[in-house]
Design a protein that fits this description.
alpha/beta; TIM Barrel; eight-stranded parallel barrel; Aldolase_TIM; His_biosynth; histidine biosynthesis; Nickel transporter
Length: 253
């Protein structure tokens, strides 16, 4: 029997507000409203409700401003880190090279988290998400994940929309450069209610065994969570299913 799927709550942040992500069509994202958790677009309140719903100390934050070429939302992120001691923040902020991460960590005054991402004993702090859509070329991928230590602590998000990888660096075709933990980001499934792409997950696991897989996009409820765990996912990024009240007691398991 597969271990239960771990749920990692997601905060999508644009212009200082939490927005609802749907199918990766970022221009159409709207401020969060009508959440079953009672959350609204204010980041700290929403983060607290999401973390409580999942009994989690890990939060995934997508800085949509930075991902679309703007400045990182450091004031909002710093406030979250100050108000939530013990938080491990998986930050997807359009990081292109290690200098971006170092500058961001210094600005935020936050240490980088140590230990594997899903290790119960991992330290709190900032954990970089290197997104395939943001890395510009193969050299950038190598610089982001240069050695065994970086490949243990960092996360690589393999991004795609539909059948199209978002991947100027060729990350999808370079499994030898992959870290230990990978996010399978199926943007076309995010907020869609269509279910997760477990066939793709199974194919990747079979082709590159021994990795820790974290899914993103499409999780609808407990049945999907059970099937995702059986397919080999260790965790799943969730937002819509929480705000729509579709995970029930599973969210606190």
């Amino acid at each position: 029997m597969s271990p239960p799927l771990r749920l990692i709550p997601v905060l999508d942040l644009r212009a200082g507000q939490v927005v609802r992500a749907r199918r990766g069509e970022r221009a159409s994202y709207q401020p969060l409203s009508g959440s079953a958790l009672g959350a609204g677009p204010e980041p700290l309140d929403c983060a607290q409700r999401l973390l409580a719903a999942c009994a989690s100390r890990v939060l995934y934050l997508a800085d949509l401003d930075a991902l679309q070429g703007g400045a990182p939302q450091t004031a909002v992120i710093a406030r979250l880190l100050r108000a939530l001691p013990g938080l491990t923040l998986w930050l997807d902020a359009g990081l292109r090279r290690p200098a971006d991460l170092q500058a961001l960590a210094e600005t935020l005054g936050c240490p980088l988290a140590a230990g594997a991402p899903l290790d119960a004993n991992a330290s709190p702090g900032l954990r970089p998400v290197w997104a395939s859509e943001a890395l510009s070329d193969a050299a950038a991928l190598q610089a982001a994940l240069p050695d065994a230590a970086a490949r243990t602590t960092g996360l690589l998000s393999l991004d795609r929309r539909g059948d199209l990888p978002l991947d100027p660096a060729g990350c999808w075709d370079r499994p030898e450069a992959w870290p230990d933990s990978l996010i399978l980001m199926t943007l076309e499934r995010v907020g869609s209610g269509e279910g997760p792409d477990l066939a793709l997950l199974r194919r990747l696991r079979a082709a590159v065994p021994g990795k820790c897989w974290i899914g993103a996009g499409g999780l609808r409820g407990p049945a999907d969570a059970e099937e995702a765990a059986a397919a080999g996912a260790s965790a799943w990024l969730v937002a819509s299913a929480l705000h729509e009240g579709r995970l029930g007691g599973l969210a606190r398991a």
